[in-house]
Structures are given as C-alpha cells and as structure tokens.
Request: fold
Amino acid sequence: MKWDWSAVADFMPRFWDGVLVTLQALVLGSLIAFALGLLWAMAQRSPLKAVRWPVTVVTEFIRNTPLLVQLFFLFYVMPEWGVTLSALTTGVLALGLHYSTYTAEVYRAGIDGVPGGQWEAATALSLPKGRTWGAVILPQAIRRVVPALGNYVIAMLKDSPMIATIGALDMLGQARQFTAITFLPTEPITVVGVAFILIAYPASLLTRALERRLVR
Reply:
C-alpha cells in the first residue's frame, strides 16, 4: 500500500471544515451538558415530589436511550411537530442533552460529598438558599467532580462523529464523503484518527491541570 500525499492535500480543505464542526459540537454540547446537568442534579434534590420524580424519569429515559436514536428523533420526528433545526444545531442539542444526564450524576455525587457540617453552618448563619448553594455547596462540589466532567468531554468528542448521520459533516463525515468520491479511504481516515488523538490528549492534560489547581 502506497501513501498518497496528493490525496491528503486534496482532503485538507474538507478536513478543516470538519474540524470546525467537530469543535463547535464539542464546545457547545459541553456547555449545555454542564449547565443542564447541574439543573437536573439540583432538581433531583428538591423536596417536592412533583419536581423530583418527573426529572428523575426524564433523565433516566434519556440516559438509557441510544444517542443515535435521540439524534434521529430530534432531526426527523420533531419537524412533524413544527420544530425544524439545522443538522449542526440538532447535533449540539442531542450531545448536550444526552450527556447532561451523565453530568447530573457527577454533580449529584459531588454535592452528596460535601460534609453535612457545611449545610449546618450555612443554616446557622441564616444564609439564603441561593447563597448557600452558590457560595458554600457548589464551589466545593464542583472541585470534586472536575476530573469526571473532563472525562465526559472526551467521551463526547468520541461520540461527535454520530452527528454526521444527520448531515452535520464533522471530521469523520468529511472523510467518508471524500472517500466516497475518490475511493481513497486510507489517507482521510488516518488523518482524522490522528486529529482525534491530538484533540483528546491535550483535553485530558487540561483536565488533570484543573484538578491539581482546584484541589490546592
């Protein structure tokens, strides 16, 4: 097998377009997952069953449903109900929504790990509930869960090629399209594989650096 550098050169414009789509899906999906996951976690601690039970049912349903099914539902079924989104927007929402159910469990574990004395101290100081969460509980909980959240970012990166199934051409989607045109699979697939490593490894290093910084 001979490596065709001209094929690599031809693929690179498509590759950079795919990189942009992949990074958009990863960054925006992560922001949604982190924010929504925290809301899920706090709602599951609500003393009101009318809040706690529906949230638990929804998160369990999402977590136990394949991401690919959720992508297809949002992209193909929601238009039947009058909601039509672009392929990239659908991919971002699906990734963020799916992984929010996992980050919710991470946040829950972090919150449960905060010593009970912290809650008692906040109550003794008559701190409002909002300040108790924002100034006492969440800062301690989030420090505990940074490594786990970072791991889910990397997992989301590895799942991002699924968005190509609905037409959002990420790196792998561009490689498959290029292969279909040129019948040269080796070069584009190899380039994409290396690119995933070059993105995932620095992300893991950043997660470790954040962990060391936050536990000081």
About this structure: The longest helix spans residues 5-44. The chain has eight helices and no strands.
